[in-house]
Amino acid sequence: MTSQVRDKTLVKTEKALNLWLEDMNRKRVPINGNTLREKALSLYALFKPPAEEGQPSDEKEFKANQGWLNGFRNHFNLKNVQTTGKAASANEDAAKAYPEQLKKIIEEKGYLPEQVFNTDETGLFWKKMPNRTYTSKSERQAPGFKAAKDRVTVLFCGNAAGHLIKLGLLYRAANPRALNGKNKNLLSVFWQSNKKAWVMAVLFLDWFHKCFIPEVKRT
């Protein structure tokens, strides 16, 4: 029969880490594997007793690798669950038919690749949290985490020849503190704002006339 003596500091670290994880779950803060490993390293460094001067330490260096994470998850009966809802379904039939329809229009009108532009918007959540979290296996689903809503909307536009024009950026505040006193016309993006950072029709027309047309004329 063989037995292995575990690192006392690591045992203390794992107990504290599990308590911290439970606290994060109560606070509706999702925690992924990378965050767990980083927290484990910080706790281990906190609990590790200082080595006596001139005496080598008997404890091996703790690296919080994937193998350790798997063992920690099994020991405390943790599972990784999805925290986001289902994405809205798209019209797949229309999406499949559109490329052929567009190709036909381009050929009939004789448009050059430099004349064929496509634009689309996307939300950039600059305080984005993980969409999965660890929780006890006894829990059937993740608690109702509230995702951070601090975001900007970015408008991309380019032509079939591969040329991208200046990005459009839409933020909730017209004059955020970070840009106080700055000339927004000198930014590398076309700055716009509304209270919800959504691309409304009037803002899109403003972008079209003040950004798209000047950019295309320069090319």
Characterize this entry briefly.
Helix content is 37%, strand content 17%.
How would you characterize the largest beta sheet? 4 strands, mixed
Number of strands: 6
Portion of residues in beta strands equals 15-25%
**Order of SSEs:** HHHEHEEEEEH
Distance between the termini: 77 Å
- The largest sheet has its strands arranged as 2-4-5-6
Helix content: 25-40%
The radius of gyration over CA amounts to 26 Å
3D shape: elongated
Identify low-pLDDT runs: 85-89
Q: Give the rounded overall mean pLDDT.
A: 82
Number of helices: 5
Question: Structural class of the helices, strands and pairings?
Answer: alpha+beta
Q: What would you say this structure looks like, in words?
A:
- With 219 residues, the chain is of the alpha+beta class.
- Helices cover 37% and strands 17% of the residues.
- The chain contains 5 helices and 6 strands, in the order αααβαβββββα.
- The strands form 2 sheets. Strands 2-4-5-6 form a 4-stranded mixed β-sheet, covered by helices on one side. A two-stranded antiparallel ribbon has the order 1-3.
- The longest helix is centred in the N-terminal third of the chain and has 19 residues.
